[in-house]
From TrEMBL:
Belongs to the short-chain dehydrogenases/reductases (SDR) family. Coiled coil: none annotated. InterPro entries: NAD(P)-bd_dom_sf, SDR_fam. It comes from Clathrospora elynae. The lineage of its organism: Eukaryota, Fungi, Dikarya, Ascomycota, Pezizomycotina. This is NAD(P)-binding protein. It comes from the Eukaryota. Gene3D superfamilies: NAD(P)-binding Rossmann-like Domain (3.40.50.720).
Length: 267
């Protein structure tokens, strides 16, 4: 349950943290791994409150700041991250999980501009805005005394489909590939500042987005069958990878896209 990694008692931010998906698992993983302060955001206030309650059940002494909002809204992203930094005086770990699936299998000529914009505004633009705000704040602080080489660590959530493609998902694949290369470019730009930037590329993960619709389950079945492990992953399995990349155990890992997909991309 995302607890094998021990983190310094720092401050973590998680976007897309509502509900029972990857973001919520990451937030709870931070709680189990030693973080003393955790800031969470999601577009859904109700599910965000549920994650806050779950964190406090793990450790009632953790200071949790939760604020709902739209990750594609520049003013919200900047104000949320600035408020986190103002409250906690630093930011050690940032994980950008907010995102949407591509929906139905749809080829490029059949996709509307509105659908394309919605997908990219959340998946890519939202991650880009979040990284920019987090980097700005991390640059204001000094490294922790216990970890002098690291001023901060950012992990973005991309996808196996940012590495390989599947039919009927041109826009989604492109949005996740953009996150991977944004991660790499930021890693180059901010290495000298002691900020590590990596990403995790999940395969098919058992979350409400992948299991509530019968049509979605059917659409994802070929990807599950192709992967050698032939099952969905769990949010906690992705969270374990995220926490590892945040930790001092990954102190020499920079600009990496860690695939957590049951072997899908080795085919």
């Amino acid at each position: 349950m995302a607890s094998f990694v021990r983190l310094l008692p720092g401050i973590a931010v998680v976007t897309g943290a509502g509900g029972t998906g990857i973001g919520a698992a990451v937030a709870k993983g931070f709680a189990r791994s030693g973080c003393s302060k955790i800031a969470i955001t999601d577009i859904n206030p109700k599910t965000l409150d549920q994650t806050k309650d779950a964190i406090l059940r793990i450790n009632p002494s953790i200071h949790v700041f939760n604020k709902p909002g739209d990750i594609a809204d520049e003013s919200f992203v900047d104000s949320f991250n600035d408020e986190v930094f103002s409250r906690f005086s630093r930011l050690d770990y940032a994980v950008n999980c907010a995102g949407v699936l591509g929906g139905d299998v749809i080829k490029a000529v059949e996709m509307t501009t509105d659908a394309f914009d919605r997908l990219n505004n959340i998946n890519y633009k939202g991650s880009w805005l979040s990284c920019r705000a987090q980097l700005r704040n991390m640059l204001k602080q000094q490294p922790l005394q216990e970890h002098p080489r690291q001023r901060g660590s950012i992990v973005n959530i991309a996808s196996q489909l940012g590495i390989v493609a599947r039919p009927g998902a041109a826009a989604y694949c492109a949005s996740k590939a953009a996150i991977i290369n944004m991660t790499r470019a930021n890693a180059i730009d901010y290495s000298d500042d002691g900020i590590r930037v990596n990403c995790v590329c999940p395969g098919v993960i058992e979350t409400p987005m992948t299991t509530t619709s019968k049509a979605m389950v059917e659409a994802l079945k070929p990807a599950i069958d192709i992967a050698p492990m032939k099952r969905m992953g769990t949010p906690e399995e992705v969270a374990d990878a995220v926490l590892f990349l945040c930790s001092a155990q990954a102190s020499f890992i920079q600009g990496h896209a860690l695939v957590v997909d049951g072997g899908y991309t080795i085919n």
